[in-house]
Design brief:
By secondary structure, the protein is an alpha+beta fold. It is 24% helix and 18% strand. It has one domain. The chain has six helices and 14 strands. The protein is globular, with a radius of gyration of 29 Å.
Length: 313
């Protein structure tokens, strides 16, 4: 029987005095982003470490509550082609160079930017191109798709950007790997905990990161980022969002407020290209008819000259 588990957050602590700072999913959540030359003044501890060394913080960060949902472990694709979407990794952007990590207006569930039309954070997904025809699954980053190849799993970014197509992967859809104690064969909480990437396991001796596909096949276990998708907060719902470009709104989900949408950028691009093609065809036909008419007139004029010309004897 398949075991289903959910992420439990670790935490950041002050490196100098050991005080708790915040719940976190990965070591980078604790790093200083004020300047590259300034070392982090925080240290990350996993949920496993917390369960042994700090039960109070473990209880606080292991619950899938509002505090968990507001963890800012994600970033934003700062580009028009990605519609400024919140996502987890640079590989989920169309162009990885536009990814800005740990922005203040994204958390693992919601997108708070007032100048786009997304209300939720979205994630990339893996598509099976093999003959096995396994169902697609949403993931934290492209490495969860495995080796890939023309007949393996293929990665797709957070925003499909096709006409009338909307991002599909939300927090409660995302499958993750797990940190597994290689010294045991059990799949209980003492020997395994869900994690978004291998860096989470680095301080726990004996634990190794097992990605999504291997976790299912070798350990008969699935890990999911969020147990459920919270509704849009009232304060976020009241934001008068204005679009940077016309975009397609997200399709309503069971817990999502209905929203009106406009044409997506992809749809507009298709319309523009079609309009240009039709115009070019019309101009070509016009020129062709003109040339044909001119050629006909020239032939008639030549025939008239040959008929009216005096014969020379």
């Amino acid at each position: 029987m398949m075991s289903e588990k959910y992420i439990k957050a670790g935490a950041c602590f002050d490196l100098n005095n050991g005080n708790f700072q915040k719940c976190a999913l990965q070591p980078l959540d604790c790093a200083s982003f004020s300047a590259a030359v300034v070392p982090s003044e925080s240290i990350f501890h996993s949920t496993y470490w917390l369960s042994i060394n700090n039960q109070d913080i473990f209880n606080q960060c292991s619950q899938q509550d509002d505090t968990f949902h507001k963890i800012k472990s994600v970033g934003r694709c700062e580009g028009i082609s990605d519609r400024f979407i919140c996502t987890s990794d640079k590989s989920a952007c169309r162009f990885s160079s536009v990814f800005k990590p740990h922005v203040t207006d994204c958390d693992i569930v919601h997108d708070y930017l007032s100048t786009n039309t997304f209300s939720y954070t979205h994630y990339g997904f893996c598509v099976d191109w093999s003959e096995n025809n396994e169902p697609n699954f949403c993931a934290w980053r492209f490495k969860e798709c495995g080796a890939g190849g023309p007949e393996g799993w293929q990665w797709r970014g957070a925003d499909p950007f096709f006409a009338n197509q909307n991002p599909e992967c939300h927090c409660d859809d995302v499958r993750t790997g797990a940190c597994v104690n290689s010294q045991t064969n059990n799949n209980n909480n003492d020997t395994m905990y869900c994690a978004v990437l291998e860096d989470v396991c680095q301080e726990d001796v004996g634990f190794q990161y097992v990605p999504v596909l291997a976790l299912k096949s070798d350990h008969n276990t699935t890990c999911t980022l969020c147990q459920n998708l919270p509704p849009i907060p009232p304060e976020q719902n009241s934001i008068n969002k204005t679009t940077l470009l016309p975009t397609t709104m997200e399709q309503p989900l069971p817990d999502e407020t209905s929203k009106k949408g406009n044409l997506s950028v992809g749809a507009i691009v298709v319309i523009v290209i079609a309009t240009i093609a039709i115009s070019a065809f019309a101009i070509s036909m016009f020129i062709f008819k003109k040339r044909k008419q001119k050629s006909t007139e020239g032939k008639i004029h030549k025939d008239d000259l040959s008929v009216n010309a005096p014969s020379i004897t």
